[in-house]
Amino acid sequence: MLDALLSLNWLSILVASAANSALGGVWFMVLFKRQYAAALQLETPAGGQKPSTLFIVGPLVCGAITIIATAFLFRLLHISTVGDALSLGAIIGFGLIGATAINVAINPKFPSPLRYSLINVPFFVLGSVMSSLILMLMK
Q1: Which among 134, 138, 139 is positioned nearest to 22, based on CA atoms?
Q2: Whole-structure pTM over 0.85, yes or no?
């Protein structure tokens, strides 16, 4: 199994991670900036402040880890067609990451779990499908 991990296409993982991070930036800082702030009951969306390093690096690292796991599953499941790659991306995005995001959001400390989920789950599905497509096309 270590051989499979070491033989992953790390360039495709890097490209998919950068694309996923860029999508997150557009999604949360442009398209859904106000809605995301409202879901978290923040007074202003980022308040004109520069995002913290953790806000930028944390999602990038978490996305990269998910993409590495996806690339590993590509090998284990012998994913070899675009259709299979897109299906796996959708399964991971909705069934694993999206479901986990919903589970985290239903914590009683979260102010608006439904609104938070409606913003985040589509991002995770789209990001996972996009990343899977990149991994497939760069195979």
Answers
A1: 134
A2: yes
